Amino acid sequence: MKLKTDSSTEDKIKEAAKQVFIAKGFSGCTSREIAKAAGMNVALVNYYFRSKSALFKIIFEAAMGDFLLSMLEVFNTSLPLEEKLRNYLDREYQFLTKYPEIPSFIINEMGRKDGANIDNTAVFKCIEHTGIFEECKIEQKAGRMREIDITSITLLMMSNCQFPFMGAAVIKQVHGISDEQYEKQLVQHKQIVTEMLIGYLFPKSQTILQTTKK
Amino acid sequence: MKLKTDSSTEDKIKEAAKQVFIAKGFSGCTSREIAKAAGMNVALVNYYFRSKSALFKIIFEAAMGDFLLSMLEVFNTSLPLEEKLRNYLDREYQFLTKYPEIPSFIINEMGRKDGANIDNTAVFKCIEHTGIFEECKIEQKAGRMREIDITSITLLMMSNCQFPFMGAAVIKQVHGISDEQYEKQLVQHKQIVTEMLIGYLFPKSQTILQTTKK
DNA sequence: CCCTGTTTTAAACGCTTGTTTAAAATTGCT
DNA sequence: AGCAATTTTAAACAAGCGTTTAAAACAGGG
Predict the structure, then answer these.
(1) Are the beta carbons of B169 and A25 separated by less than 8 Å?
(2) Distance, Å, B43 CA → D22 C1'
(3) Does domain B59-201 have CATH number 1.10.357.10?
(4) CATH number of the domain at B8-49, please?
(5) Tens digits of per-residue pLDDT, B65-78?
(6) Please, what's the b/e burial string for A59-97 (b: 16 or more CB within 10 A of its CB; e: otherwise)?
(7) pLDDT tens digits for B35-82?
(8) Within window 7-66 on B, which residues have Cβ closer than 7 Å to strand D?
């Protein structure tokens, strides 16, 4: 009896599934397509992973993990908040340059309306667990950060990181630019976003805080 | 012979198809599902629209049209640029509150990797045709607008409008808030986004322009 | 009231889907 | 080498897919 096989087969399937699922979504691809991408039989996919759904769950949760990892690493440092956010923006653009399809993948599959939804409440708990939200509130009370809702801070950060990658195809068509041009554009855009967000969230000097709080 | 029928059948199918396609995507639903949603036979769907793909094309292009309409209406006015952008943000949040799934729908289906892609170059040409991009360049040359790339301006506007709707499910889970709470959040967020973007793009007083231009 | 064209239906088409089966190939061990 | 467990294969399964067919139901004008 073999206890620990080469495992390259199982891994090859996982690797292929990751590529195919992320590129086309759960309902946009077939089991046979994944098998072919891994260079093997359909039955093997179900031999190692019980079903298409079971395999998908593994891939999806791994993607979520990857996505959260860099975020958590930044938030768990002991730098001042402004530096943390700067680092977050930097790391996020780095990550998304490498895996530009992951946000679309996560958002689409989370919003899938076919009853086969995966529960992620536990996954997101660990963001709150870093204490980043509390840190924001402290800085806000101290008058060093603009007093806007924490949810809006999250929205500002995520919008300006993720959309440029999710909506790449649209933007490229609107402005008629090539893939290479857009890649350069994103490098520039990261700087703009950082400058704008940090400037807005941490207004130096006499700027009025509490602008939108009632 | 009947020249102009009630037409309610054709319209009912289109209405049902719109709902189903936008909610689940092209590959996420079936012809029979659309037929059932419209309360009729599968064959009828293909009697009025030749195929699932043909029906999809109609729905997709209508969604694109709806999406662009409010944008064009704003851009074709003769208000000063800053007012135009304020109006754009307002109208866009209004539109997206009503049809929150359209951006995801457009972005996903545009990026679909199965060779059945719809060409939209013509559609996007009409944005450029409003002269909004030229107007930005004029304002930049006159020193009234921050000198950043036009593509980045588009990115900033679209990111902060569309992501809050596309990523709603994620944000709600991260902060554990309800649908109603999030709806209120979005009203507040629109104000924040407007203030931040206008403040950044049209820096009053002594602020240094040309910050990221080399 | 039948006749012509249109709209709707039920049933079938061939094909692909996810999944299972059972036999073949491979492996590790003694 | 021989045996038992594991891995891989080809083939089949029912179910569902998009699409087509042919007949039924319906409409209005003579």
Answers:
(1) no
(2) 13
(3) yes
(4) 1.10.10.60
(5) 988 998 999 999 99
(6) bbeebbeebbebbeebbeeeeebeebbbbbbebbbebbe
(7) 999 999 999 999 999 999 999 999 999 999 988 998 999 999 999 999
(8) 29-33, 42-43, 45-46, 50-53
